[in-house]
Amino acid sequence: MAQSFQQSFLPVLERIGEEIEGLAGRGRPADYIPALAAVDPNRFGMAVAELDGTVYGVGEWQQPFSTQSVTKVFTLALDLAREGDSLWEHVGREPSGNPFNSLVQLEYEHGIPRNPFINAGALVVTDRLHRLTGDASGNLLDFLRTESGNQDLDFNRDVAASETAHGDRNAALAHFMASYGNITTPVPTLLREYFRQCAIEASCADLAVATGFLARHGIRADGTRLLTRSQAKQVNAVMMTCGTYDAAGDFAYRVGLPGKSGVGGAIIAVVPGRCTLCVWSPGLDDRGNSVAGVAALDRFTTITGLSVF
User: Fold this and answer.
1) Which of 2, 103, 178, 206 could form a disulfide with 183 if both were Cys (CB 3.0 to 4.6 A apart)?
2) What is d(CA 207, CA 135) in angstroms, rounded to the nearest whole number?
3) Rounded to the nearest 10 degrees, how much is the dihedral formed by the CA atoms of 77, 36, 167, 122?
4) Is residue 217 classed exposed, middle or buried when 0-12, 13-18 and 19+ CB atoms within 10 A define those classes?
5) Which residues pair with 50 in a beta bridge?
6) Predicted pLDDT of residue 4
7) Closest to 169 measured CA to CA, from 32, 28, 31
């Protein structure tokens, strides 16, 4: 299996890496988080992992970076595995059409966020996981270490502190939802868990391998089942419609895969039944998605013909 991958996909990655090198106008890092503002927007890495965990990459594919909102996929899966469909009573499954940190929809939708990938929705999912486990961020870190096979994964405390110091909008979202009874964890505790979650550092290789359970229809790396096949479908579907903020339609049009981006510059993507991908480049567009990352995934699906369409 690894040999066929190497023959068919590795040259594709190398070709994409060469094309991305010449890409102009790569955007800018997330300057509203000071710990991320200084990262060179021209950095680039990309990895593809097969179902058995074999992984290949190009560029800085083994360089750790701040995962940010990419981790929302894993928190969602961990909570969904525990409480099932009752989660959807507290968070929706529809695109928001607004920026990821927007407050505007919460009031007229009675404190129920549109989806689990905007900040409000992710706070709800983290709240529910913390309620069930007593340690949402710790459970997430343990899961990522196990699935990636990298026990050195950890939180970046400087990034977490930076987000805490500039987290007024997230605090407002949490307090507003708490006023509707849709948050039960004390808000300071919830914000600590949420910022720690976003401050996990991992590489393209780590995240591509860790995402493999979604390509295996819910089966973890050790062969045990985390999600039912239906639940894995649900997570992939929400990634497709909501995973790149209010640019999800354009991402589906260009890339044609379930994906989730983070303002650290990473995007994970899933080819169900075949492979998983992670690309990282810190320069963002005005919707918070990696410019080079979207371009690289666009080229991957165009060259290989692998998409869900």
Assistant:
1) 178
2) 21
3) -10
4) middle
5) 275
6) 42
7) 32
- Give CA–CA dist 286/112, Å, rounded: 26
Q: Provide, rounded to the nearest whole percent, the portion of the chain with pLDDT above 70.
A: 95
Q: What angle do CA 114, 253, 272 make, to 5 degrees?
A: 80
Question: Do the Cβ atoms of 269 and 120 come closer than 8 Å?
Answer: no
Write the single-letter amino acid at 261.
S
Among 253, 244, 247, which Cα is nearest to 301's?
253
pLDDT in tens, 282-303: 999 999 999 999 999 999 999 9
Better-predicted residue by pLDDT, 104 or 74: 74
Give 19-28 contacts, CB < 8 A, sequence gap 24+: 19/295, 19/299, 20/44, 20/59, 20/281, 20/292, 20/295, 20/296, 23/291, 23/292, 23/295, 25/291, 26/281, 26/283, 26/291, 26/292, 27/283, 27/284, 27/285, 27/290, 27/291, 27/292, 28/283, 28/284
214: which 2 tokens? 């979604």
- 53-98 residue pLDDT tens: 999 999 999 999 999 999 999 999 999 999 999 999 999 999 876 6
Amino acid at 246: D
